[in-house]
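Need Integrator complex subunit 4's 3D structure for a figure. Predict it.
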Amino acid sequence: MAAVLKKRALAEYNKSYQDGPSSKKLHLAKKPLIGSSAAAFVGLLEKCKSSDEALQLLLRISDCLQFQESDVEEAIKKLSEHFQSEEESAVRVKILWLFCDIGLECPGANLNHLVDETIHLIKNETSHKVIAQGLGTLLKLGCKLSDDKTLMQRLVAVAKENLKDTSHQVKCRCLQLISELYPISPEPDRTPDMITEANVIVKLLSDYSNAEDARVRSEAFQALLTLHGRGLTLSADIYEQVCPALSDDYEIVREVALKLIWLLGNKYPENTVTLQDGETTMRLVDDAFIRICSAVNDLCMQVRALACTLLGTTRAVSDRFLLQTLDKQLMSNMKKKKTAHERGAELVRSGAWASGRRWADDAPGQLLEQSTVQLLPGGAAGAFVHGLEDEFMEVRTAAVEAVCELSMQNPIFATTSLDFLVDMFNDEIEDVRLRAIDSLNKISHHIVLREDQLETILSALEDYSMDVREGLHRMLGSCTVASKTCLEMCVDKILENLKRYPQDKRSTFRCVQKMGSNHATLVLPLTTRLLGVHPFFDMPEPDVEDPSYMCVLILVLNAAQHCTTMLPLFEEHTVKHYTYLRDTMPHLVPLLPIGENQFSRKQKSESEMDDSAVRRFFENVLQHIDNVTLSSNVRLKMLQSAEEQLNKLSEMEPLVTGAANFTAMFARCVLALHTALNNPAGPPAHALQNLSTDCLRLQHQFSGVTEQENACVWQLALRVSAARLIAAVESAAMTTGAGAGAVALSTAAALTHHAELLDRLLVSAGMEPDPFTIAVFQQLSCGEPKPGSLARALHPLLLAAPLPQIPTPNLKIRMCTATIIEPASDNDTVLRFCAGLITGVSFEAEVLRVREPGALRVRVAYPDRRVHALLPPRDHLRPLDHQNTNDDGTENVRLLTKVLISHGVWTEPCGVDISVCLAVEEGGGREAQLVELCRPVRVTVAPKPIKRGI
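Structure prediction for Integrator complex subunit 4:
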């Protein structure tokens, strides 16, 4: 660290140059680790008396694998010599394994030499396991040398030679090596010779798809897929060769063949294939789709799930085959196909027996081949019906996702598949129900829900799972219903369900908000019933705090935004309630021309869109603060006034809350630092702690901050770190003990670490540091100073330094905030539990614009000043359904967890404060600090003693 700062400080700030000969460079050699160097173990191989000892020694080499660069070549030589004299195949396998590890992990290893040595060792090898391991070593080393095409051709030639081996393992490794290392040039650079050679390779791999061993057949198909993934175009001619593999006895072959069929179908959709009758032709993509549909009835669960997944990603399929997947009835030329039994039954019912007029008109039919008779429906008939009714969750989930993908591309298929997706709402597995709900949400723009479908959908609202209920709320908000009766059913069921699950209030509000906006014309005839408006009598005024009435208001007000005809139907108390909701929940209630907003709607919307006035206000507030000609006292008073005005601006204008809070907090830190440094008794500890917390908030709680503004914040934080060092040294001088000295040392280390990070940040931002930062760099460049001397040198510099520069306001700055929904702040319930045990408090919060959700913590503060920071599980952080991500890369998350509280016996109930914080790392070996994102909520707790006896 000192060397880095010394170079920067002396070169850039002192501007001094030294003439004369350059100093002698020192070569620092890293000492070898005694007793753990792998080179020592390699030297012991000659003394091994048995293969077991050699294997144990090789395992120890593999565990440490620490070679000096000069020892690598000698170690490889000794390993190779032992390989040639070793009789046990397991030891030879381990030596080749070590070759691969040395080449990939040890610096200074010659990969080409390792490749040559491996090829030489396996050339005359007889053990299949050793040859397979040698090919695996060549494959991994070759991936590191893929730019050397000559070497790649040599490795491919080695693999071709070993393809004649009788072992399936060797053949599989050879096929894998050929597919991954065969050099493939970009398509414009390919010559006819290259194309011919590539076709020979494809032909070679295709031939091995007919091997006796299923593992070799599977690897051959996988090699073709690998070649295609690397850029080699496969010909459509191999389609006919792959199709028989779909009926292979082994599922590993059928699985890879399915992927290859899907690939060729999507690659050449308009090619034609001839069916078994020799006359009928069909598009290649349609034939591939039908063959994949047949795999939905496969005996293996993995194959069925893969078939459903591939069906969803198949494009350009004809509608008649696509729609056939949702109907189990066999069709031929769009006519229902009858079985022989059905045709015979019709013949019996009609009484049309043999008349005897024609010769052998009652003779038996022609003999059929056994392979042409299918007991199960083949082709595309009912493929998705079978997939959605499968006994395994994986297949049903894949089928639901496939139906969703196809429905998003085809509106006709979306309408046809709607009933099947709705039926999946009754699935026994929660994950399948959630997938069905999300699928219906994605295709909502293609469908219109009928009454019979809504009955099934609304019955799922009673599900015990909150995820299912909230998913249904999102789906109902995005879908379109067919009639007024359907909308009435939805509203009644939602209000009834809200009484059963009051914790779904916020999700229900967003649901009815979208329903009102999407069905304005259907809400109009229901307005009088929903609001309780009577033509003759004055009805009682509803309670605006009632969640059911709030749902109705949100529904009607959002519908009134698009249908102004219902505005005259509002009574006086409805207008007052609108004003209340508009102030408390502006994100749920739109701006309507009623009440006070009747004539100012246009002017207000224009003022919201124009931010020039806000920019001028910022400039007026901060125009004289950075004026160096003014005295420090005048600038401090102006800073204090600017802080007050910016705090008021953040409350009045939500769009600039982040920028106003950022600048106001910066001004507050400057004022507090100046006050603490000019304190006659020295900087107070609590003031420095608050300053450190505010600096951490400036660094981590705001997003959209430019590098220049961030550099200003870090320079301010450097002054705070220097003030903390001065206070720590003064405290250590006044007290005796090792604890005070340790605090001073840790504070000095934190200052050094902060200066190092600031130096990098200034270089990245292209900024020149302020005078105090330059002085700190110069002090730290003089070796590693002690905390006392460093504090004595920085104290006068810190007092004489001018006020920090206030960064120019950036209106794109946004602030990370949290809102605690549960427990409520006005909750008076006392939680009683046995002392020493644990009680759980339901906790729900919404965190907006957080950069790292993993840094969120739940802070629990007890009355005896004990503080616990609880890390919520990752699955307790859920994305907000109304807005998940923001334009600045931050996330909006919903924290839904249980806070565990435990304590000893209390004489009376006391409050425990719970809040949401960010855990930020300061560096320098210090533990993470907590930055609060909201005001804590107090929960009253009363631990009672455990009763003894009966």
